Amino acid sequence: MRRVPRIGGRLARKDVRRPIDLAARIDRIESTDEIRQLAHRYALAIDSRNLDDLVELFVEDVRVGRDASGRDALRAWFLDALSRIRTSIHFVGNHVIDFEDADHATGIVYCRDEVDRVVDWGIGYIQYWDRYERRSGRWYFVRRQFHRWFMVDALTRPEAGAGIDADGLATGRLPEAWPSWSRFWQEVEGRKASSSTKDH
């Protein structure tokens, strides 16, 4: 059984599964590029509302919610979700990919999005926590977990968590979704407490 790393955990881990021989190294480079293309094609399909191309980026047995699976169910979900907004622009940025083995990987993708929400023009930042799998020589999404820093009107000064529940999509709240975030602040508080004790 392969070990599945927790997405959102430690970032600076060593890639213990680095390929050694030339063929495996070339395959890793090609796989990295194909996986990055998944994220870009996803953004294009969302913004162009090309649901047929969109669902083809996912494995055939993709899980949709708790009770459904398959591309037809995923297409129906996107049809409903995307009908609530008009124009959208998704600009893909940083993309970190970690390979579990030659055919399985995880990734974290940053994305700036702008959305015509009918009542206003929203601007926000998303982070996707992905799982990828290669099947029959082609890479697919197995899962995309959606997290958001904020989504606000273009004229509003953003702050963490602002407006993220307004669109009706269930998202993880960033930066709190990262386990390292709370550990960092606990360490800061611990240092303050320790410093305060030394002062007395």
Describe the fold and architecture:
A hairpin with a 2-residue loop joins strand 3 and strand 4. The protein is 32% helix and 32% strand. The longest helix has 27 residues, at 22-48. The strands form two sheets. The chain has a five-stranded mixed sheet with strand order 3-4-5-6-7, covered by helices on one side. The protein is built from four helices and seven strands. The radius of gyration is 20 Å and the shape is globular. It has helices spanning 22-48, 51-55, 71-82, 179-199, and strands at residues 63-64, 68-69, 88-101, 104-116, 121-135, 138-153, 172-173. It is of the alpha+beta class and 200 residues long. Residues 1-5 have low confidence and may be disordered. It has one domain (22-199): Nuclear Transport Factor 2, Chain: A, CATH 3.10.450.
What is the compact description of this entry?
This protein has 200 residues and is α+β, with helices and mostly antiparallel strands. The protein has helices at residues 22-48, 51-55, 71-82, 179-199, and strands at 63-64, 68-69, 88-101, 104-116, 121-135, 138-153, 172-173.
Features:
disordered N terminus, about 200 residues, single chain, alpha+beta, Nuclear Transport Factor 2, Chain: A, 4 helices, two-stranded antiparallel ribbon, 5-stranded mixed beta sheet
